[in-house]
Each structure stands twice: as C-alpha cells, then as structure tokens.
Design goal:
globular; two-stranded antiparallel sheet
Length: 189
Amino acid sequence: MKTSTSISFLQFIEEKTEIQDFEKWIYESESLEEELPEETYTELISLDFNDKSIRNYVSEIITPRLDFGKAHKQILIALINDIIQKRIDPIDGLGELHYEWLDSKGYNFLSRNLIISNFGEQGKSILSRTDYKDELSIEEKWQIIELEDHSFIEELKNIKKELEDGKIELTGKFREVRFNGRKFEYKEN
C-alpha cells in the first residue's frame, strides 16, 4: 500500500477525516482496488458508512495492512516542517507534538526538547493549550518560545534531519499498553 493511502486510512481511523469525505474517497480512489487484496477491498466497499462503529470496522480491516512507520514519518516530518516554518500556531503545533506524538503514540525522542516534553505541564510549560490562545497573536507566541529557548527551532531541525536520514527509524511496530493504547516503536541508529 502506498504511503499516501496509509495516511488517508490513518487520518480516518484517528478521526481527522469526516466519514462522508472518507466514504467518497473510498469510492472515487482509482488505485485503492489495486493496492488492497481483493477480499479486503470488497469488505471495505461493502461497509455501511452510516454505522456508528464504522471507524472501528475500518481499523479492524486495514490496520494489519498499514505501514505505520512510513506514514508516521511522513506526517511527523510535515508537522515539524510547518512548525519550523512557523506556518501554524505554536500552541496547536506543540500540542500535537506533545499530546499526539509523544504521549499518545510514544515517540519519546521528542522529549529531548523541553518545550515539547513540558507542554501543558502545570508550572513547567511556557505555553499551554489555553494560555494565551486568544490573547496573543501567533507572532507574539513565537516570540515567547524564542525568548524561552532560542534553540527550539534548531532542535526541531535536528529531529527532522534524523528522521529523514534514518538516524531515527519509525519501525511501524507497536504494542498495546493497557489503559494507554498503542505505543509505537522506533530505533535510534
């Protein structure tokens, strides 16, 4: 399965894509039938997209076929790049890195950066999800980060380069952790 296809499935499973948009993509995708085994494809297009458990059903069908490593690498590099280029609100970007990638998925190499690892921690975080959310401009939020840690962007560039060069390898393997969900494995080479 192509990485872009894996990403589309992941975004749906992780509730980042609306059901009707995903259903439309399923039926309009020209390559999906070729990328999936016939039985999987038939099962997928036979699903009732009005069923409240549709995301669970898609996850059960597709998860064994997903290349989490390549998909996560591409998504994470794109997010880091958006942060480096300051194209997104730093509270949103840091929140996604901390809550989704570090805490939820278990990519602990992100904790090397204290701004990311301490995000949202009472008494430690220079910005939290609600602090300054509507009071400061995006530029003012970036100024706070740069004053607190002038090496923040350089550290992110280093992490991005390590991902691109394979020094940090997202294996795609995961383990189910009771009460915490899936924790993904990675190697630092």
